[in-house]
Records
---
Amino acid sequence: MKKAYGLGALIIFLVFLLLRCSTNKDSIDKEIQQLLMLPDEFTSEWAIENDYVMNELENYSNINVLDEFIKNVNDGLESHVRIINFTDEGDIVINLLIYNGEQIESYLDTRRDEFGSQTIIKTQGHKIEVSEDDIIEHFIGPHVRKEYYLVGDNQRRLLIRVRITNKTGVSMENQLSGNKKDEGPNFQNDLPEYRIWKYSEMSGIRKYIGEAPLRIYPSHDAPALSPFNSEKIVNCIYTVTLNISSPEPEVWGMVLENNHDTTKVGFAPIEDLVVPDESEHKIIPAESLGGFKRGDRIEKLIGTLDRDYSVIHEMVCIYSFPDDNHEPVDPREDIFSENRSIDAFVNDYYQVTLIRTDSPQFQLACGFKVGDKASDVFRYFEEHYTASDDNYYANYNYSLSQDEVVSFRINTPELVDESLIESIWIH
């Protein structure tokens, strides 16, 4: 959408005329006037050709122009530079920096930012600080991050952040300037550029139909995590895109593999991750515990309970949610601890197949809970259900349906009048 600046731009221009330094009046006036008279819309190609420093979707241009400006400031030479950043919504923000031989004047133009102040903000600084770090980020991989800050008496404001995957061992500065001398960090793996989009592809439960194992980062050349069987069910958490500027970019999914023995996170090509047919694994629940049922996704318990939990691996994957007043649990072999909790066993589809509790916070739909008198509980279930001989988890079991059993443990070796319910299992 076009915007008319007219009288407002003229007023801003007159204000800048009053504030300018007389020793470099003509050069400052010229740069400010060019800033004011820029059209509302212009192409990236035009900006690059006119020496604008630009960060557009992490595609960086003319960083060497900013480095030259910093050199001129350090040498006491009058200079200027124009920097373009883009907001998350894609709006343009321009920062004009002018060094007059004594200080740096910054004119931040937010008039094209729909959610900004839509004015030109003037500040001053005395130097530009540059920080450069070699880092590894999970979604980005090994890369060099370089940040430029304008520093004044009461401010330290980020001007631009440059993040470039290092593919050649050449330092970022030399990559940007075209110098191929091997001066930078030499990463062991040759990584392509990749990124996460603000709006990722859909995530969720997927069946892996490829043949290769999961990779530690999104590349066919990346080291494998472990042997990986085809037809495996995984949870696709996010997607990343390789070779963004390529005509045929690659999309990879970051997946969570629920492998019973352990839980692994890795990457797989998105074309090898397909939506599975879950109809064969449909669970029809008959009873609930604290409002949770067999067949629920584990995400429901995580989101509803909103508390810390542990993931336990003992032939199956178990999510344990201790009561709020629990003590920290050190790594251990036994499943139950002194902490009372509600626990959910999950299958490959992250569905709850068994749910149990030894906490009185979670009651059955019929109203009974841990701590109730065992004889009263058993009398009710004997009147409404048939006793089951499935005593794998406990000695007192009742068939709720053809596919579901509820089991109880009591706090005494034998059932007596004082016996209380110690734990409840739905399986």
Note: Residues 1-5, 19-23, 166-190 have pLDDT under 50 and may be disordered.
---
Amino acid sequence: MCTRHNVKDGTSAGDAIVAAGVPDAGSDTVAATVSVSVSVSVTATVIGHGHRARVSTGTGSVSVRGPEFKTKNSSFKIGGLLPTPNCDGILWRLSQAEEAKMDIGLVKDRRPFEHRVGLTPGAVRVLTECGHRVYVEDGAGVEANFGNRTFEGAGATVVYSEDDVLLRSELVIRVSPPKPADYHRFQEGQIVVSSWHLALAPAEAFNTLLDRKVTTVGYEIIEENDGRAPVLEAMSEIAGRLAVIMGSGLLLNEFGGKGLLICGSPGIPPASMVILGAGTLGRAAARYAQGIGAHVVVLDRDIDAMRRLQDHVGYDVPTMIATRPHIEKALAFADLFLCAVAVHGEKTPILVTREMLGNMKPRSIIMDLSIDQGGCCETSRPTDFSSPTYEVDDIIHFCVPNLPSSASRASTRALTNSILPYIEEIADRGFDRAIKSNSAIHRGTYTYNGNCVRRRLSDELGVPYLDVTAG
């Protein structure tokens, strides 16, 4: 027996009645199974991707769970009880729609010298107490000093391998960008929240994500309406502080530098630190460097950004417009030159050419922390802590993209603080609703349902573009 019935948009779950015949069957029923196909068209607040619906009769009930059905105009099947042959029909009632219980996975990052994990055990407890299931790969948090037992105590299930996590999870959370060679490992339709930096991805690899309909949310491009980038800011604040700590070491002889003390000493002037970029990373570095006594100069093209920096740091830090002549002038006196340039979701422009390195004093340091988006120095290339520096034209280069990972526990906490509200919204409401209702999640999404949702990136790669706000 099979019947089809349409429910109007906006119908509440408790009032949606689907009749597979005429009057109620009454109490005379037998335990036989019927498959009823119901075409449902209701608002996403009632039934949507990742939601659970309970369908019941007067004598029993069965549950069906997404993704067997989607938000609108789709079909799903329900098993139930069939009335005795002498009854005219049976009344089916869609009695309630419960919030989704999403399967969420945390994987262990295998990028060299990546010690962070996507969420702290405290955040995992928040999710599990809301009824979501969290799977954690064995040892995922060990290097940030979060052991398996702490995750299990928070209600997570620890599984053996990364594949176990990927096969079980609808939503995957990681830290470092996945390698293009691994894109095929994601399940079709899976949501992956991570650093992505897809502006640098090869077109072929990007198409793999589209073909598999993987939804990709990038920490680096999540942006609120007021222009704040909460996740990027959290990591940049830590990176800025670490840049000063690391840079002060690089100036010492044992690390290849020219033997300078960044803060100076009585009768000895401090080292000169030039920061290119007055954003979050630049401000954090400037404040910390100034606090320990370095001579700090900041360049940026945005006057308002430099005003904010001086409000934050004070007027003792000189600022300059980042024109080529000014950059060349700053390179000439810099002992430590920090590149802190960022363009949300796009490749970083080259602002320091190899020719310009000729202005620098021998054994000076370039720290290019915009390297995760390509770097703003022509001679920059990614490094890691196995060999963090190299030399070009007698200038020492340090280009480690995941610098915050060296303070893994602090960075994991900062990452969790900034990303958890978005994870909760995706898990509680489903991604179909979250991307349309939350503009920060929308801006933070690269790919969705087989399409690129960033116009400029789709034009550059020649791939389909989807405007999720249309309709």
Note: The two ends are 36 Å apart (CA to CA).
---
Amino acid sequence: MKRCFLILVTLFCLGNLTAKYDPPISPEVLDYIKAQDEKTLGVFKDGNSLYAMLIDLKDTPESALSYAMACGYISGIFDCENGMVFFSLGGKTLVQVVDVVKKFLKDHPSMRHKGAFVLCMMAMAEAWPILEKEE
């Protein structure tokens, strides 16, 4: 029911991703991601804070905890959206998925003010498009 609602919202929502971005993502998937923008959903974490958690590695318990929380956040999005926004048969490690998100955040600094949920979905959809089946 929730996914049906999100699809309906996608059909009526133009989205708020205004930064120039031309990804290899199908228009339907991009519309779904746009519908998830922070004006549609509340923002728990933005791209700036997630990126800071991923790059601020110090030899302290706080830094380790912060990095682990970022990895858990990314892992949750990967598990939740696999098959809906991107396609992954498996065989990926958490380190690989985190690296994909971290590289996306590094390469798109002008978009880091967006919700981290949206940016993670965009990174994963770019890395593993739903239209391409893995071999």
Note: The CA atoms of residues 86 and 129 lie 5 Å apart.
---
Amino acid sequence: MFQIRVFPKEIPIGKEAVKVITYNVNNFNTDGKKQLPNIADWLRKEDPDIVCLQECPVESALRMDSVAKTLSFLPYYCSTRSATKAAGNAIFSKYPILRFESILYPESSNKSLFAVMDIQGDSVRVFNNHFQTTSVNAVKPRLYQAHAEGKQLEETEAAFHMAFQMKKNFVKRATQADYIRQMLDAGEGPVILCGDFNDTPASYTYRTVKGDLTDGFRDCGSGFGYTFRQLKRIFRIDYIIYSPDFKGVKSDLSELHLKDLKGKKVVINVFPSLDTAVCAASVRRFNKEAASLPNTVVLAVSKDLPFAQGRFCTTEGIDKVIPLSAFRCSCFENGYGMLMVDGPLKGLLARGVIVVDEAGKVVYEELVSEITNEPNYEAAIASLKN
């Protein structure tokens, strides 16, 4: 919910960066005033590549082609209007939308919108979600009024009604999150997933949908990250989550990104430091195995400096494994959750193995139970053959 960065994280700028905005526009209405022109002006200044909107108004109130005309600087769009005329979601993009699908949930007016985009030559799956509402705003006026008038019985009834509605909607949100998780697991390729989850980072909804993906605020944000304006403004319920690409620094100081290895199988051997016997042994073992692994790249990732990694590989004759230093990038810490947060090795990467297939999908992952244990080499290699 809150995090402080002493050193602000570098945000990538350039042709490879993709800027995404998610916004519950509340029917483009604030206190009875139409806000589409103001929102459009703000978006134009922000210059995003992709905008995911929730609670777009019903067709009778505002035609989607009118919204598209106002947001013409984002020429490609799709919406849940293709499946229902009710209020729903829309995606506007600078990138071509190859196909899309409206996701309507039973016994709910909330929706999700799924699209596949051509982003710089990659087919990227984009999910725009508006999960089940909490119903807090619907009950709150009755609760506040009873409290102000000193009507204790009515106040208690309103509180119980709110609790009942919230519990009922928790179940609906969980079902919706399960459905999106099934779609994520069934598909292949990179993902951008965002929207109004109506739930906190501690919730089942958030944890189920996020999985191994990277939370944009946790990765790059700073300060107090609330997005819900009610209840004292202490809750974050809106998110931008994405596939955890990574970059590492090779021994020649050039950078290697996971996307650079597209079309190949990748074994990522992560460990604390080459200056420990177990870490060194794992690199030797994977170097030996790599010779018999077709179309496979094996990476050895630690926070050792590239110079130290280069010396180790030269001394040990390591020529089938690519050493990568994570000293410039926190992607393994945040995106893959590999940072040790306590103990004498606090601040270094934990020991584990991640295997990614040719489509960029994680097919195997292991985090050792004890840092002194070697990884399960046989299981990791077997996953390459499945």
Note: The first helix runs from residue 36 to 46.
